[in-house]
Amino acid sequence: MRRIHIAILIGQLLSYLLIVTFIFADATFGFVENLVGEEPTLFSNTYFISACLVGLVGAISIWISFFYIRKSEAMRDWIVLCAWTQRVKSGNRWISITEFLSDYLGLNVSHGMSEEVVEEMRSEIDSNWRKLHPGSEEQEAAINQVSEPNDSAEPRPEVKMPISGPGRKKRSRAPREDRVI
Question: Contact 101/109 with Cβ under 8 angstroms?
Answer without folding.
Answer: yes
